Amino acid sequence: MMQQEFMKRALEEAHRGVDAGDGGPFGAVIVKEGKIIAAGHNEVVKNNDPTAHAEIVTIRKASRKLAHFHLTGCHLYITAEPCPMCFAAIHWAHIEKVFYCNTKTQSAEIGFDDQIITEIIEHKRPDPVAFVHTPMESCHTLFKKWFDKPDKVLY
Amino acid sequence: MMQQEFMKRALEEAHRGVDAGDGGPFGAVIVKEGKIIAAGHNEVVKNNDPTAHAEIVTIRKASRKLAHFHLTGCHLYITAEPCPMCFAAIHWAHIEKVFYCNTKTQSAEIGFDDQIITEIIEHKRPDPVAFVHTPMESCHTLFKKWFDKPDKVLY
Fold it and tell me: What is the distance between the alpha carbons of residues A14 and A53, in angstroms, rounded to a whole number?
């Protein structure tokens, strides 16, 4: 399969999601060694899950399939440029390459303004969420416990 | 229950996760109107899921419980400052207030350097992931289809 075919599959997923009313017009496909190992679409509305963006849904499927929390060597095909949540998830998953179709600007034009969250991260606009630092000695102890754990698994 | 009690519950969750080898030392609790509606901890290793940070796990539980993709009026208690994935998820979920214990610097000290992802978002360091824009007319059609859908649900 060629790159365009993979993107078509992501598009098909997105259409399926829109037709079913599952969420926004976003589909994703994860490819390893030239084969699709997972496909998914946005299910925020269907599952009442604000984290169920197409990328997250599909990363979860692929990592379950590969039985590993890293998708090393995998390529992700998505119908739109990822939001910061999915962008970070792509990095946590160690995905190698991402092909995206529509841009953030195009997403904003139809009502998905992820750019707002990016600007909050970049401290370019005020944060509507209040973040309160409440240090506790017992939290330091927790971190030390993990750090000293001989069989800890890094990810 | 007081704020400190909620954080203690998040800490207990984190300890449970570390003891079980489920993932990193991170726990979360979501509170609505003074009552805990969801609690969870990092399950990246247990579930082979790179997105299973404590915040994501707990947001998913809470939104399922409230049967809504927005957690308006909810407070989140977490053992550490969120990574960009969870930070964005908090915003998508419309959480009102976040109490966190350990800082990003403290997380980095024990091996969780989320700051790297933040710096990539801020274009302060090169991105190890290749992002390739591959525009397609059919992707534009997909977005238009969603935009014109009379019963679309915004989130």
Answer: 11
> CA torsion sign, A17 to A77 to B89 to A144?
positive
Assembly ipTM? 0.96
Contact B84 A14 (CB under 8 A): no
**Residue type at position A3:** Q
Q: How far is residue A1's CA from residue A29's CA, in Å, rounded to a whole number?
A: 13
Contact residues on chain A for B93, CB-CB shorter than 8 A: 50-51
* A109, amino acid identity: E
Evaluate the CA torsion angle B42, B46, B47, B51 in order and state its sign: positive
* B95 in Cβ contact with B82 (< 8 Å): no
Report the predicted TM-score, pTM, of the whole model to 2 decimal places: 0.97
Give per-residue pLDDT as tens, A138-153.
Answer: 999 999 999 999 999 9
Contact A129 B79 (CB under 8 A): no
